[in-house]
């Protein structure tokens, strides 16, 4: 698995990056593991192509609150999270906007970098849709 110091996501609303922590279950008759997502976006720096601050600023994308959001009218829109140390990322969550369906993310690319100049494409999504407001969807990928 590759570790990255920074991630950038284009056209996202309310995202959280995560990795899976596997815990063996001692009570099971056969060995099993449970994947628990771990929030990795705790101690980093956020930058964005724009924001509608202060109520819908870039930091709202990582606050783990489905009732807040990052909003920008910049196009193309991008959001970058720089970790304090390199992390292995295997999934992320995006939440639909609370107000208007046309503000929901539809298509995006997730990229990772260790130097902020050279980027590796981690995940691409096209024509995604949300069926309700505040709907959180988690996307996993191989890393």
TrEMBL record:
InterPro entries: FA58C, Galactose-bd-like_sf. This is Discoidin domain-containing protein. The lineage of its organism: Bacteria, Bacillati, Bacillota, Bacilli, Bacillales. Residues 1-23 form the signal peptide. Transmembrane segments: none annotated. Keywords: Signal. Pfam families: F5_F8_type_C. Residues 29-143 form the F5/8 type C domain. PROSITE patterns: FA58C_3.
